[in-house]
Amino acid sequence: MKSQEMPVSFEIGDKYNDRYKYSNLMSISEDGTGGTLLVRAYYSGLVLSPKGYLIEHYDKDLNLIDEYNYKIKGKEFVDGYAKNGQLYLLFLDYNLNAL
After folding, report:
1. What's the pTM?
2. Do residues 53 and 40 touch, judged by C-beta distance below 8 A?
């Protein structure tokens, strides 16, 4: 088999310790300057429940520039995007009393 004869090289990078081990990636968007914005929902507690959103800003080389912990409960995240230098987060909130 040719695939077993192909030379492959790899490099192991730095170890990254994540404060929020229980999280889901919700959105990835470009920041307009070559960087990337990530929005992650994080969970905690004995019974894992959503606690908020972690917004991370990376440069073009994927070095962490800044992060922000956005604590919000009970809202359904739809999408996040950057435009004109600002981050916009869209949430869905049902008004059950209006039904």
Report:
1. 0.70
2. yes
